[in-house]
Design goal:
alpha/beta; 12 strands; seven-stranded parallel beta sheet; Rossmann fold; three-stranded antiparallel beta sheet
């Protein structure tokens, strides 16, 4: 009898989730990913508004990561004309959505088209808005506004989704219940990770799930959001919004980057996210050198692109760390 492949479910957003998926797809596992549906910036935001659809950008990145072969050209953006700023992948997803009038079906068909194994599951079947209420009463509406804000740290009073009545994608709840290992992160804490956990049905299913649960900490802090955060601070925020400490393991980076590179990108990154010394004997914390030696360089005029951490986890090392937790 053929042994059942372990089912790994990843929960997150675009870049962080795509990096992890690109590493995990090399292993004999069943892969699923629940992706946030709150993006409202750039090409995704424009297509979301025009076609009343789930924003395609985060899904696009993960689609490319799972693809069999090199489909990176789907990330290429038009440089002029009426399509300026749109990626080829976003337009392809929009075309398939228009054809099916069902976003999940469109993604399922595109996964087949690129020869991918695994499934990509939007957290909801309709687009949502991320809303942040600050202590001074200021209201930030939309993922873009939250991501570029420098006022989140120490000022965030409440983070929520609109409409409040939004329901989880049934496929997301099913995947949570069937998973053997659930991985949350890496990714922007407030605009990529937490939106998934603000959907009541997803939060409830995660707490009840029998699967082992893993959190992958970010490499660096984000200015205005997580300044001076340690791994424990990230966990405290997650616990606040989930309502429970659900993680059996926490993977964090112990590698370093040259001071010259850090200095070069000082406007985009904060400090390394480390673990307090008194916590390092706790066996649920798994420290590995995970930082990639490559650096993302962007010529984009998009303000979000300018504040994104230019360093990525190494997909191979990160996948090995996750696989090491499967017994």
């Amino acid at each position: 009898m053929k042994k059942k492949r372990p089912h790994i479910l990843v929960i997150g957003g675009g870049t962080g989730t795509s990096v992890l998926l690109s590493g995990l797809k090399r292993y004999p596992v069943e892969l699923s990913a629940i992706i946030t549906t709150g993006d409202d910036g750039s090409s995704s935001g424009a297509l979301r508004k025009e076609f009343n659809m789930i924003p395609p950008g985060d899904i696009r990145q993960c689609l490319i990561a799972l693809a069999k072969g090199n489909f990176s050209y789907l990330n290429d953006r038009f440089q002029k004309g009426s399509l300026y700023g749109h990626t080829l992948g976003n337009l392809l997803i929009t075309l398939f959505y228009q054809k099916n009038n069902d976003f999940q079906e469109a993604i399922d068909q595109l996964l087949q088209l690129v020869g991918a194994e695994g499934s990509l599951i939007p957290m909801t079947l309709r687009p949502v808005n991320l809303v942040a209420i600050l202590a001074n009463g200021k209201k930030l509406e939309g993922e873009h506004a939250v991501t570029v804000s420098k006022e989140i740290r120490n000022n965030l009073k409440k983070l929520s989704l609109s409409p409040r009545s939004v329901k989880a994608n049934p496929r997301a709840i099913k995947a949570i219940g069937e998973a053997d290992l659930i991985v949350v992160g890496p990714g922007n804490l407030y605009s990529s990770i937490l939106p998934n956990l603000l959907v009541p049905e997803i939060k409830k299913a995660l707490i009840a799930a029998k699967a082992k649960k893993v959190y992958i900490a970010n490499l660096f802090t984000q200015a205005g959001h997580t300044d001076n955060f340690s791994v424990v601070d990230f966990l405290d925020v997650l616990k606040k919004y989930i309502g429970a400490d659900i993680f059996d393991y926490v993977i964090y980076n112990t590698g370093t980057v040259s001071p010259d590179l850090i200095k070069e990108h000082k406007d985009a990154i904060g400090s390394f996210v480390g673990l307090p010394a008194d916590m390092k004997k706790d066996k649920r914390f798994v420290g590995k050198s995970l930082v990639s030696v490559s650096v993302r360089r962007s010529e984009s005029s998009d303000p979000i692109a300018k504040i994104r951490n230019p360093f990525l986890h190494d997909s191979g090392k990160l996948a090995r760390a996750v696989m090491g937790l499967i017994t």
